[in-house]
Each structure stands twice: as structure tokens, then as C-alpha cells.
Specification:
Strand content: 35-45%
Number of domains: 1
Order of helices and strands: HEEEE
Number of helices: 1
Number of strands: 4
Structural class: alpha+beta
Strand order of the largest sheet: 2-1-3-4
Distance between the termini: 66 Å
Helix content: 25-40%
């Protein structure tokens, strides 16, 4: 019986640890596109990027608004936004 209690306690600790890591995941990045005015607009829904000469979308960490701070983008996608 003592061994069973010890096993249950060990399982509870492992489950608790796993739940802690699952809730501490980083939020996803957010995609934006730069308008001709220079302002950024968040990209939602389907879109395509054609060609390779322009800047189509820019990803920033969730919570960072590039209209306020456009430094350190996570990634950039080339092309013309459609």
C-alpha cells in the first residue's frame, strides 16, 4: 500500500510539471503588411505573395505593434501582397 501511495505521488508530480510547461508556451508571432502610407496592418485570412522584389509580410512577436516599434522582426516574406 505504501508503494502505491508513492507511485501516485510521483505521477501527480509529473502531471503537475507537464501542466506547468504546457501553460508557459510562448505566444505565436503575428503577421503584418506595410501599407503604401508606411503604416502596418495585421494580416488576417488568406493572402498570396507574388514576385520577389517587394516586402509582402513581416512577422513580429505577439504583443509588439510595429506601428509603435518596428524593430527586430522575427521573419519577412518577399513578394507583392494580394
Amino acid at each position: 500500500m505504501k508503494g502505491m501511495k508513492l507511485n501516485l505521488a510521483a505521477i501527480a508530480v509529473l502531471l503537475g510539471t507537464g501542466a506547468a510547461f504546457a501553460t508557459s508556451a510562448k505566444p505565436a508571432n503575428v503577421k503584418w503588411r506595410q501599407l503604401s502610407t508606411g503604416a502596418y496592418q495585421q494580416v488576417t485570412g488568406a493572402y498570396t505573395c507574388t514576385g520577389t522584389t517587394n516586402l509582402c509580410t513581416i512577422s513580429y512577436p505577439a504583443g509588439q505593434d510595429p506601428n509603435i516599434d518596428d524593430s527586430n522582426p522575427v521573419s519577412q516574406e518577399a513578394g507583392t501582397f494580394h
